[in-house]
Amino acid sequence: MTPEDLFGRLRTRFADVVLARGEVSVSVGPKELLAALEWLRDEDLGFDFLSDLTCSDWPELEPRYWVAYHLLSLAQGHRLRVKVGLAGDDEPHVPSVTARYPTADWFEREAFDFFGVVFDGHPDLRRIEMPEEWTGHPLRKTEPLAGVRTRFVGASIPPPDRRGT
Amino acid sequence: MTSSPGRPPGSPSTPTSTEIETRSMGVREDTMIINMGPQHPSTHGVLRLVLELEGEVVVGCRPVVGYLHTGIEKNMEYRTWQQGSTFVTRADYLSPFFNELGYCLAAERLLGVEAPPRAQTIRILVTELNRIASHLVWLATTGLELGAISVMLYGFRERETILDIFEAITGLRMNHAYIRIGGVVMDLPDDVPARVERLLNTLDSRIGEYEDLLSGNPIWHQRTRGIGVLRAEDCLRLGVTGPMLRAAGVARDIRRDEPYCGIEKYEFDVPVADSADAFGRYEVRIEEMRQSLRIVRQSLERLRPGPVMVEDPKVRWPAQLSVGPDGIGNSEEYVRHIMNESMEALIHHFKIVTQGVKVPPGEAYVPVESPRGELGYYVVSDGGQHPYRVHIRDPSFVNLQSVPALVTGGLVADVVAAVASVDPVMGGVDR
Amino acid sequence: MPAELVPGVQIGRGEDAEEVRRGLLLTTLGKAVAWARKNSMWPATFGLACCAIEMMAAGAGDYDLGRWGMEVFRASPRQADLMIVAGRVSQKMAPVLRQIYDQMPEPKWVISMGVCASSGGMFNNYGLVPGVDTIVPVDVYVPGCPPRPEMLMYGILRLHEKVQREARIT
After folding, report:
1. What's the predicted TM-score (pTM) here?
2. N or C: which terminus of chain B has fewer CB atoms within 10 Å of its end residue's CB?
């Protein structure tokens, strides 16, 4: 199915569908996520493979956290991005999709580790990349890069996030 | 006291000697939890496996990753778009060109530019050579871990010949930052096509040597056949792609299904096996090396003179590099132009090198077929000079989730063979 | 091996000079021990990231580390006397690094290979330790990203010179 056909097809079910640069994106709320994924999988669109699951942080927007699911249909070859916007609390919650897509296991642990997004229903939600006793969620925009000042002979260069350009 | 292995039915319950020993010494027959790694010669890098063993049989496995986490994704948010190539190239360090290619294709999709045809052909040339080099390292380290130590030396010998080509083209043996947004950073030197041609002839026979050494070898068969089996349905549910999926019988290859850089015009086959075990993955990777040789040969035939970087002055990396008396540098005409002749050109050069391109707001996801599977780049831009969010969908990260399924129920000695057949690169897993 | 080639050896000028030339060495115990140590230094496998691949390439056929008796990378740190920290050391890996270093018996040396191990490299962020010399004492720093095998060999030879020069018995 071409991106244009997919776009038209999804417009019948979802309100917030965007076609840009040949890619189709759908935005849903956290409560409709599981139902939307069921529909996308079971209808003739056949999105049965989860390629990627990640999060981005937009501290000036509301919702603040946007979890992106990249789906692929193996039989038909088309791709789709499903985005879920979460409010900017300290612990945003979203349902886990590991029951449907077991590959989401480590992806969700990584999103929890880096952004603090809690996936309800995940079998074992704990940090994966940072040490277990680490506090904070490093990839949030409010967390610093935490680099060190580099001292040369005759100069001192601050880390990239404190340079002012 | 007799210690017969089984008791005939209906006999009185005479304990076996093992039970008597166990009871008298107070030894518990529990499982043993041992730790394999992160510093271990056979875990392909800093992977830690917590294994629960009952005797020699693995009853549980929990991989722990993160020992190489570098914060590449966060670092890129503070650097310009063009500098991103140098960061992503160090994620999956055995396939650096693929990292750069995925990132640059995603950024080019946001910018709405396409690299010129010669750049696309060069990109295919170096990425397919990289695939061969990566599979050679896989073969070398897998052979070393399974005890075929001379395969390690042969694999690295071949890889050195490929690294010589990379050094001639990009200046570096690894971590090149050669593929930039808009094309590649400089053109091929004049002697490179002939050198690649000579390399192709030797590599073909060398791959034949590996097959002679290993494919019929009964020790290799015993160590890899039936080890680490992961059938197609489990592969797809776990998100496994690449040679692991193709060894399970699913002919999915992004070069075929979602082609990039004009690879749809090249003739090559996608090797598939159906044993879904470590031996099948070995066969798939050997055949992939051969197919990559075919693609490299075709890319040499397709090379036509032309620019290697887009013309758009707001995007193109402004270097016109050539070999100067000290090794490398901007060509003399270019330096004369920006220093003597045109102030605007100098200002433009300065701005684009220090501040970088401005990528329009949006997001893009571009997958490429790396030697380990689907390598995807999810790039988000807010319209500025720095990437807002770059996420690397690394195939090793996803493939490593399948390790508990591969090793549970097998012997602890087969853990090494199973993990080796996954071909994880911890730089990509941890980023 | 001819007596003249062993460093630090003095060949006498007296009546026993002829005997010396026929194979008798005069040296201090420290220098002899240092000579033996530097010619059979066994590295521990501590390859972390990209530099590990170049370290393996240095141990392979083209740039053979076996010329100096170093191609046997010991898996167990208890059997090794050189730790080549090859690659970026993350915060999670730092305690493991220290533990491996502590498990090595004396005398032991550390080569910090690559810029990430020497100073944190191009990654100046929350995830990495900015230089392993904050955790273990380093003898030789080999810069590069990654250093060519020849650069690593140069660092190893400088370490050999250091060992010979120090000539410790303990």
Report:
1. 0.89
2. N
The pairs formed by A150-156 with CB atoms below 8 angstroms and a separation of 24 or more are: A150/C124
H-state helical runs in A12-59: 33-42
Residue B6 confidence (pLDDT): 45
B393 touches chain A (CB under 8 A): yes
Please give the CATH topology (third level) of the domain spanning C42-166.
Answer: Rossmann fold (3.40.50)
Give the tens place of pLDDT for each residue, B114-172.
999 999 999 999 999 999 999 999 999 999 888 888 899 999 999 999 999 999 999 89
Q: Is residue A52 situated within a structural domain?
A: yes
Contacts of residue C145 in chain B, CB cutoff 8 Å?
175
Would you say residue A139 lies in a domain? no
- Is the pLDDT score of B43 beyond 50? yes
DSSP state of B418: H
Distance in angstroms (rounded) separating the CA atoms of residues B389 and B311: 27
Report pLDDT digits (tens) over A61-101.
888 999 999 999 988 888 999 999 988 777 899 999 998 89
Query: Is residue A114 in a domain?
Result: yes
Q: Where do the structural domains in chain C lie, given as residue ranges?
A: 3-37, 42-166
C57: which chain B residues are within 8 Å (Cβ-Cβ)?
156, 159-160, 163
- Here the CATH number for the domain that contains residue A117 is 3.30.460.80
Q: Does a structural domain hold residue A11?
A: yes
Q: How many helices (H) and strands (E) does chain A have?
A: 3, 9
Three-class secondary structure of residue A22 per DSSP: coil
Cβ within 8 Å, pair A138-C127: yes
CA dihedral B282, B285, B290, B296 (to 10 degrees): -160
The answer to whether the CB atoms of A129 and B69 lie below 8 A apart is yes
Sheet with A65-72: strands ordered across:
A16-20, A23-28, A79-86, A65-72, A49-57
Give the domain extent around A62: 3-130
Determine, for residues B238 and A102 on separate chains, whether the beta-carbon distance falls below 8 Å.
Answer: yes
* Closest-CA residue of chain B to C94: B67
Residues composing chain C: 170
Chain centroid to Cα B414, Å, comes to 23
Could you tell me where the DSSP H helices lie in C16-112? 17-21, 29-38, 50-59, 94-103
Cis peptide before B38 (omega within 30 of 0): yes
